[in-house]
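thought: fold this chain, then report.
action: predict
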Amino acid sequence: MAPPELVLVLNMGSSSVKAALIWAGGTCRPWHGEQALQGRPVSQVLEVWLEPALAAWWPSIRLAGHRVVHGGADLIAPTRLGPAVLQQLEAVVPLAPLHNGPALEAIHWLTAQRPQLPQWACFDTAFHSSLTPAAYSYALPRSWREQGLRRFGFHGLNHQHVAASAADQWRAAGGEKLPRLVSCHLGAGCSLAAIREGRSVDTTMGYTPLDGLVMASRSGAVDPGLLLHQLRQGISPGLLDQVLSQESGLLGLSDLSGDWRELRSAAAAGHSGAALALDVFRHNLIKGIGAMAASAGGVDVVALSGGIGANDRHLLRELQEALHWWPAVTFLQIPADEEGMIARLCWQGEAELTNGR
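observation:
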């Protein structure tokens, strides 16, 4: 009996790498792991950790898929990697340097190790390529917009997974058309997507992943006038970036932690900062869900995903109570599965390329 064909998925973060082996066309994972970078070069971590971990599996690995956070305006579908595509990826590294840079390092390492292995890239921005100009355009001068300053949106791979999972559950419950969906990716990073007929029509993150909801240490949406005020007060752009990205959000509000579970426990014990952080998070989440429902032309399903969304039953009940005035809305909790979505997209793309030859 032939061994199962496997897809290797690499999900590079700014401080760690996740890897998984997934059976082609399925969801079973015979192996997965995560390793912190701890300031080491990506190639070193992959050489010391991943190469030996996959020693027994390499003969069955048929292709590799990479999560790439930003594809820019042009890379809007799963893409087979080659020299021309790699040049495009190099050009958009400045749009997401903490994620795209390590992803490229992983691609180059794997190319050196397994030059015959087909490699694909899947982009977190791609699912939102269906946004119309009305949804992605900022009210800025044309000269700025022509520089590519627009809303891109992120977490697209998981929003796409949530859309597919919610549609399956909706049909199983007797629904005929695809549901009007508000997908809520709630973890260390948080974003919402309005999904109509299976396509993203609006989202809360913008040109960068700083926009939108309150997150673990990221501020989310802030009045740009406030930021101009701080710049006039003498704060440097670098420090402003650090504060907004690493010292704000739940951490900044609570003055305690950005960890959701820790804040839940602290708020229950009477910590006022933790209680404020949870309140501001919920307020912005509820407001955002309402806005996304308006963009979707109504709502049939609100789906919670990500580390917070898929696991906190108390948050689910809070949202159900806060939105009780909405008739006939189904609430779901759906575990995130970026790696599974990447494997399916890449395997499908490779099959289409092979059959088209």
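thought: worth noting. The longest helix spans residues 272-295.
final: tokens above.
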